[in-house]
Design brief:
Blueprint: H1 3-11, H2 15-20, H3 30-33, E1 35-36, E2 44-49, E3 52-55, H4 63-66, H5 71-75, H6 77-83, E4 91-95, H7 101-109, E5 115-120, H8 123-136, E6 141-145, E7 158-164, H9 173-183, E8 184-196, E9 209-210, H10 212-219, E10 226-232, E11 238-245
Parallel strand pairs: 4-5, 4-7, 5-6, 7-8, 8-9
Antiparallel strand pairs: 1-2, 2-3, 8-11, 10-11
The structure holds S-adenosylmethionine (SAM).
S-adenosylmethionine binds near residues 101, 165 and 176.
Length: about 250
Protein backbone atom coordinates (compact mmCIF):
# COMPACT_ATOMS: atom_id res chain seq x y z
CA UNK A 1 0.00 0.00 0.00
CA UNK A 2 1.36 3.48 -0.89
CA UNK A 3 1.91 6.03 1.85
CA UNK A 4 -0.90 8.29 0.50
CA UNK A 5 -3.36 5.44 0.40
CA UNK A 6 -2.39 4.47 3.91
CA UNK A 7 -2.96 8.01 5.22
CA UNK A 8 -6.35 8.23 3.43
CA UNK A 9 -7.33 5.01 5.04
CA UNK A 10 -6.45 6.41 8.46
CA UNK A 11 -8.57 9.48 7.92
CA UNK A 12 -11.66 7.70 6.62
CA UNK A 13 -14.11 7.50 9.53
CA UNK A 14 -15.56 4.08 8.81
CA UNK A 15 -15.55 0.70 10.38
CA UNK A 16 -13.59 -0.53 7.40
CA UNK A 17 -10.81 1.94 8.19
CA UNK A 18 -10.28 0.61 11.70
CA UNK A 19 -10.18 -2.96 10.55
CA UNK A 20 -8.21 -2.71 7.32
CA UNK A 21 -5.11 -0.90 8.55
CA UNK A 22 -2.16 -3.24 8.29
CA UNK A 23 -2.12 -5.42 11.37
CA UNK A 24 0.75 -5.72 13.76
CA UNK A 25 2.11 -9.21 13.21
CA UNK A 26 2.02 -11.60 16.13
CA UNK A 27 4.63 -10.14 18.43
CA UNK A 28 6.18 -11.00 21.72
CA UNK A 29 7.65 -7.67 22.85
CA UNK A 30 6.01 -4.28 23.34
CA UNK A 31 8.19 -2.73 20.62
CA UNK A 32 7.03 -5.29 18.07
CA UNK A 33 3.47 -5.35 19.32
CA UNK A 34 2.67 -1.68 18.70
CA UNK A 35 3.04 0.54 15.63
CA UNK A 36 3.48 4.33 15.74
CA UNK A 37 2.39 6.62 12.91
CA UNK A 38 3.17 10.33 12.71
CA UNK A 39 0.00 10.97 10.73
CA UNK A 40 -3.02 9.95 12.70
CA UNK A 41 -6.40 10.95 14.12
CA UNK A 42 -5.89 14.03 16.38
CA UNK A 43 -7.99 12.33 19.06
CA UNK A 44 -5.64 9.38 19.16
CA UNK A 45 -2.08 9.03 20.43
CA UNK A 46 -0.58 7.83 17.12
CA UNK A 47 0.02 4.37 18.57
CA UNK A 48 -1.74 1.44 16.89
CA UNK A 49 -2.56 -2.02 18.17
CA UNK A 50 -3.97 -4.67 15.86
CA UNK A 51 -5.06 -2.02 13.38
CA UNK A 52 -6.75 0.24 15.96
CA UNK A 53 -5.49 3.65 17.05
CA UNK A 54 -5.41 4.09 20.83
CA UNK A 55 -7.30 7.15 22.17
CA UNK A 56 -6.00 9.77 24.61
CA UNK A 57 -6.73 9.07 28.27
CA UNK A 58 -9.58 11.23 29.52
CA UNK A 59 -8.13 13.74 31.98
CA UNK A 60 -9.57 14.66 35.37
CA UNK A 61 -11.44 17.60 33.82
CA UNK A 62 -13.65 14.97 32.16
CA UNK A 63 -15.10 13.90 35.52
CA UNK A 64 -17.83 16.52 35.19
CA UNK A 65 -18.85 14.97 31.87
CA UNK A 66 -18.91 11.49 33.40
CA UNK A 67 -21.27 12.80 36.09
CA UNK A 68 -23.57 14.76 33.74
CA UNK A 69 -27.32 14.64 34.42
CA UNK A 70 -28.15 13.38 30.93
CA UNK A 71 -25.87 10.33 31.19
CA UNK A 72 -28.52 7.96 32.52
CA UNK A 73 -30.76 8.79 29.58
CA UNK A 74 -27.93 8.60 27.02
CA UNK A 75 -26.14 5.52 28.33
CA UNK A 76 -28.81 3.80 30.49
CA UNK A 77 -26.31 3.02 33.25
CA UNK A 78 -28.89 1.38 35.50
CA UNK A 79 -29.90 -0.95 32.68
CA UNK A 80 -26.23 -1.66 31.96
CA UNK A 81 -25.62 -2.76 35.56
CA UNK A 82 -28.88 -4.73 35.69
CA UNK A 83 -27.89 -6.68 32.59
CA UNK A 84 -24.68 -7.84 34.31
CA UNK A 85 -26.78 -9.89 36.77
CA UNK A 86 -24.43 -9.30 39.69
CA UNK A 87 -24.95 -11.37 42.82
CA UNK A 88 -24.56 -10.58 46.51
CA UNK A 89 -20.98 -11.41 47.48
CA UNK A 90 -19.45 -10.79 44.04
CA UNK A 91 -16.06 -9.13 43.84
CA UNK A 92 -16.23 -6.61 41.01
CA UNK A 93 -13.32 -4.66 39.54
CA UNK A 94 -14.31 -1.39 37.86
CA UNK A 95 -11.16 -0.81 35.86
CA UNK A 96 -10.82 2.80 34.76
CA UNK A 97 -13.49 3.66 37.32
CA UNK A 98 -13.03 7.41 36.89
CA UNK A 99 -15.11 9.26 39.48
CA UNK A 100 -17.00 6.09 40.36
CA UNK A 101 -20.41 6.70 38.79
CA UNK A 102 -20.79 3.06 37.74
CA UNK A 103 -18.91 1.66 40.76
CA UNK A 104 -21.60 3.14 43.00
CA UNK A 105 -24.45 1.51 41.06
CA UNK A 106 -22.70 -1.87 41.07
CA UNK A 107 -21.75 -1.66 44.75
CA UNK A 108 -25.39 -1.77 45.76
CA UNK A 109 -25.97 -4.98 43.77
CA UNK A 110 -23.28 -7.02 45.53
CA UNK A 111 -24.25 -6.20 49.14
CA UNK A 112 -24.03 -7.33 51.86
CA UNK A 113 -20.68 -9.13 51.49
CA UNK A 114 -19.50 -8.18 48.02
CA UNK A 115 -17.54 -5.11 47.05
CA UNK A 116 -16.30 -3.09 44.10
CA UNK A 117 -12.64 -2.34 43.53
CA UNK A 118 -12.36 0.97 41.72
CA UNK A 119 -9.10 1.01 39.76
CA UNK A 120 -7.76 4.12 38.07
CA UNK A 121 -4.41 5.59 37.07
CA UNK A 122 -5.30 9.14 38.14
CA UNK A 123 -5.12 10.12 41.81
CA UNK A 124 -7.64 12.93 41.26
CA UNK A 125 -10.20 10.47 39.89
CA UNK A 126 -9.69 8.13 42.85
CA UNK A 127 -10.12 10.99 45.32
CA UNK A 128 -13.30 12.09 43.60
CA UNK A 129 -14.54 8.47 43.55
CA UNK A 130 -14.08 8.32 47.33
CA UNK A 131 -15.79 11.68 47.88
CA UNK A 132 -18.73 10.66 45.68
CA UNK A 133 -19.08 7.30 47.47
CA UNK A 134 -19.04 9.03 50.87
CA UNK A 135 -21.66 11.54 49.73
CA UNK A 136 -23.92 8.72 48.51
CA UNK A 137 -23.36 6.64 51.66
CA UNK A 138 -21.72 3.78 49.73
CA UNK A 139 -19.22 1.91 51.90
CA UNK A 140 -18.23 -1.11 49.80
CA UNK A 141 -16.00 0.51 47.18
CA UNK A 142 -12.24 0.05 47.55
CA UNK A 143 -10.11 2.49 45.52
CA UNK A 144 -6.88 1.14 44.01
CA UNK A 145 -4.23 2.95 42.02
CA UNK A 146 -3.27 1.11 38.85
CA UNK A 147 -0.56 1.81 36.30
CA UNK A 148 -0.67 1.94 32.50
CA UNK A 149 0.36 -1.72 32.42
CA UNK A 150 -1.16 -3.17 35.57
CA UNK A 151 -4.50 -3.17 37.37
CA UNK A 152 -2.81 -3.92 40.72
CA UNK A 153 -5.46 -6.59 41.36
CA UNK A 154 -4.54 -9.79 43.22
CA UNK A 155 -4.37 -13.01 41.17
CA UNK A 156 -7.60 -15.07 40.86
CA UNK A 157 -9.54 -12.60 43.00
CA UNK A 158 -12.23 -11.09 40.76
CA UNK A 159 -15.67 -12.38 39.68
CA UNK A 160 -16.36 -9.61 37.19
CA UNK A 161 -14.03 -6.99 35.72
CA UNK A 162 -15.69 -4.20 33.78
CA UNK A 163 -14.28 -1.41 31.65
CA UNK A 164 -16.87 1.18 30.68
CA UNK A 165 -15.57 3.46 27.93
CA UNK A 166 -12.03 2.64 29.03
CA UNK A 167 -10.39 -0.17 27.08
CA UNK A 168 -9.90 1.91 23.90
CA UNK A 169 -7.71 4.33 25.87
CA UNK A 170 -5.39 1.77 27.45
CA UNK A 171 -1.91 2.80 26.38
CA UNK A 172 -0.80 -0.84 26.74
CA UNK A 173 -3.90 -2.91 25.93
CA UNK A 174 -1.99 -6.19 25.60
CA UNK A 175 -0.25 -5.82 28.95
CA UNK A 176 -3.47 -4.71 30.67
CA UNK A 177 -5.43 -7.69 29.33
CA UNK A 178 -2.66 -10.10 30.33
CA UNK A 179 -2.77 -8.61 33.83
CA UNK A 180 -6.58 -8.58 34.07
CA UNK A 181 -6.75 -12.16 32.86
CA UNK A 182 -4.53 -13.21 35.79
CA UNK A 183 -6.76 -11.36 38.25
CA UNK A 184 -9.89 -13.27 37.17
CA UNK A 185 -11.26 -16.26 39.00
CA UNK A 186 -11.87 -19.20 36.64
CA UNK A 187 -15.34 -18.61 35.18
CA UNK A 188 -15.08 -14.89 35.98
CA UNK A 189 -16.37 -12.41 33.42
CA UNK A 190 -14.53 -9.58 31.69
CA UNK A 191 -16.85 -6.95 30.24
CA UNK A 192 -16.01 -4.27 27.71
CA UNK A 193 -18.58 -1.51 27.27
CA UNK A 194 -17.66 0.38 24.13
CA UNK A 195 -19.45 2.77 21.76
CA UNK A 196 -20.58 0.83 18.70
CA UNK A 197 -18.21 1.37 15.77
CA UNK A 198 -20.72 -0.51 13.63
CA UNK A 199 -23.21 2.35 13.96
CA UNK A 200 -22.10 5.59 12.25
CA UNK A 201 -24.93 7.51 13.97
CA UNK A 202 -23.44 6.98 17.45
CA UNK A 203 -22.25 10.51 18.30
CA UNK A 204 -18.70 10.07 19.61
CA UNK A 205 -15.20 10.51 18.18
CA UNK A 206 -14.01 7.62 16.01
CA UNK A 207 -11.12 6.51 18.24
CA UNK A 208 -13.59 6.21 21.13
CA UNK A 209 -15.59 3.55 19.27
CA UNK A 210 -14.85 -0.16 18.94
CA UNK A 211 -16.40 -2.84 16.80
CA UNK A 212 -17.25 -6.21 18.30
CA UNK A 213 -14.93 -7.83 15.83
CA UNK A 214 -12.01 -5.67 16.96
CA UNK A 215 -12.74 -6.28 20.64
CA UNK A 216 -12.82 -10.03 20.11
CA UNK A 217 -9.61 -9.94 18.09
CA UNK A 218 -7.84 -8.19 20.97
CA UNK A 219 -9.28 -10.08 23.92
CA UNK A 220 -9.55 -13.64 22.58
CA UNK A 221 -5.82 -14.15 22.23
CA UNK A 222 -4.89 -17.65 23.40
CA UNK A 223 -2.54 -16.46 26.14
CA UNK A 224 -5.37 -14.55 27.88
CA UNK A 225 -7.50 -17.69 28.13
CA UNK A 226 -10.63 -15.65 27.57
CA UNK A 227 -13.63 -16.71 25.52
CA UNK A 228 -16.37 -14.46 24.16
CA UNK A 229 -19.68 -15.55 25.66
CA UNK A 230 -22.23 -12.91 24.69
CA UNK A 231 -22.82 -9.39 23.51
CA UNK A 232 -25.69 -7.71 25.27
CA UNK A 233 -27.28 -5.15 22.97
CA UNK A 234 -29.69 -3.28 25.20
CA UNK A 235 -28.00 0.11 25.34
CA UNK A 236 -28.71 2.95 22.93
CA UNK A 237 -25.07 3.63 22.00
CA UNK A 238 -22.76 0.97 23.41
CA UNK A 239 -22.37 -2.75 23.24
CA UNK A 240 -21.73 -4.80 26.35
CA UNK A 241 -19.21 -7.41 25.24
CA UNK A 242 -18.77 -10.27 27.71
CA UNK A 243 -15.83 -12.69 27.87
CA UNK A 244 -15.37 -15.54 30.33
CA UNK A 245 -12.07 -16.63 31.85
CA UNK A 246 -11.60 -20.29 31.06
CA UNK A 247 -10.24 -22.74 33.57
CA UNK A 248 -6.89 -24.23 32.49
CA UNK A 249 -8.52 -27.45 31.29
CA UNK A 250 -10.92 -25.71 28.84
C1 LIG B 1 -13.64 7.83 29.91
S1 LIG B 1 -13.17 7.54 31.58
C2 LIG B 1 -14.44 6.38 32.09
C3 LIG B 1 -14.68 6.36 33.58
C4 LIG B 1 -15.77 5.39 34.07
N1 LIG B 1 -15.54 4.04 33.59
C5 LIG B 1 -17.12 5.85 33.68
O1 LIG B 1 -17.63 5.37 32.66
O2 LIG B 1 -17.69 6.71 34.39
C6 LIG B 1 -11.73 6.51 31.45
C7 LIG B 1 -10.97 6.31 32.73
O3 LIG B 1 -10.03 5.25 32.53
C8 LIG B 1 -8.85 5.56 33.23
N2 LIG B 1 -7.73 4.77 32.68
C9 LIG B 1 -7.10 4.92 31.49
N3 LIG B 1 -6.13 3.99 31.35
C10 LIG B 1 -6.16 3.23 32.48
C11 LIG B 1 -5.41 2.11 32.93
N4 LIG B 1 -4.42 1.57 32.22
N5 LIG B 1 -5.73 1.57 34.13
C12 LIG B 1 -6.73 2.10 34.89
N6 LIG B 1 -7.46 3.17 34.50
C13 LIG B 1 -7.19 3.73 33.32
C14 LIG B 1 -8.72 7.05 33.08
O4 LIG B 1 -7.89 7.62 34.06
C15 LIG B 1 -10.18 7.52 33.20
O5 LIG B 1 -10.52 7.83 34.52
Amino acid sequence: MTRIAFVLLLLTPTLKAQEEIAETPAASTATERYVWNAEHDPNGIGKFYKGREIAHVMGFAGAVWLERDTREEEERLTLLVKSLKLKPGDVVADIGAGSGVISAIMAEQVLPTGFVIGVDVQDEMLLRLQENARRKGVTNIVPIKGTQQSSSLAPSSVDLAIMVDVYHEFEFPYEMMADISKAMKPGGRVVLVEYRMEDPTVPIKLVHKMSQRQARKEVEQPEFNMKWTETIDVLPRQHIIVFTKQSQEE
